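Run Disease resistance R13L4/SHOC-2-like LRR domain-containing protein through structure prediction, thanks.
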Amino acid sequence: PNIRSLLFFNEFFPEEALEKSLPLEVLNYVKEHEDEVCNPLVCIFRISRAGTSCLKDRGIWRYMFNNFKLLRSLNYEITRRDYSIGFKLPSDIGNLIHLRFLSLKDLMFSWLKLPSSLGNLRCLQTLDLRVGLGKIHVPNVIWRMEQLRHLYLPRSCKSRTKLKLGTLRKLLTLVNFNTKNCYLKDLINMTNLRELRINLSFNIENFNEKELGENPPIIGSKYLHSLSIFISFRDESIDPKHLAHLLSSCTSICKLSIGAKISKLPDYRYFSSHLAYIRLYYCLLEEDPMPTLKKLPNLRILEFERSFVGKEMFCSAPGFPKLESVILVELHKLEEWKVDEGAMPSLQRLVIRSCPRLKMLPEGLRFITTLKELKIELMSKAFKDRLEEGEEDFYKVKHVPSIIFQNIW
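Sure, done. The structure for Disease resistance R13L4/SHOC-2-like LRR domain-containing protein is below.
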């Protein structure tokens, strides 16, 4: 009853050695249920995937939850590509009132509903509910866990799930937040939040589109440094004005990732001046984002992946004063990229991958003397040949110490 952590790996120990190491009570229990359990393994603190595949009888979980009540950390760890657990999580998990850490990541239950007894775990500081595939219902009990620092919600919740999170004032990390299953107004109370990841849906109700400043602020934390937004193609695109208002509340972020369909970026004034990293993927922007992004004074890394559907991009001078790395991936309609002399004066690394219609590198690259690495991947042989020594575009890159070509077709 005083055990706080217990670790067994049936992959690494012969069955005889494992039996000697197990408590008599567990052995007796397993013998009684040997018809349901293919290879007995009890693992508290960490259950390897080899073990979880054997724990298909719900009773053995209940045994653990009722006999190891002093546990501080419980992590069901996947080590093989077999997610099935085969039953619902027993309500007895609520007996582990001393838990500080609980992770159910990647586990798949046949009963897609978590027990309300999770609300008893008021000492939790980390809760990871990113279970396996499928929508799961989470009871509205997380608000009781006022000591939470890190909360990872399921990737997809059932429609009836609606979680109040406004009491979680100590929260530092919030992952898979969305406005369908959570309340947007609760974010204002999370005054210590450092990282926020929005997943699947983001919408502001009763939004004043004419006067953005009249809308109440969304983020209450002055310490937020990382914001990620992902909305799948099946969902509606994100409204540029809603995004602008969200960004205006994130005055301290230095890392921004947007994976959502959006017609154009908000004006640069809505972006934090501290931004050093921006990733745009699957945005399908119709308007060139470069005139906006070039005005961010501290931007160092810029990544595009299927983020622009226009034919031309233009980086004018002065612009991108501290930009060090640019990655362009799968911009399938891009035909011409122009770079002014004086733009991107600090660029060190450039990667172009699978931009089939791009005819040539921009003229302005020859003025960027700081460029150390150029990587060309999944591009045409004609594009590559232009950059060979003695060919028509070699003068643009002859100063670059490292030029790498991969998977040229």
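Residues 6-18, 36-57 have pLDDT under 50 and may be disordered.
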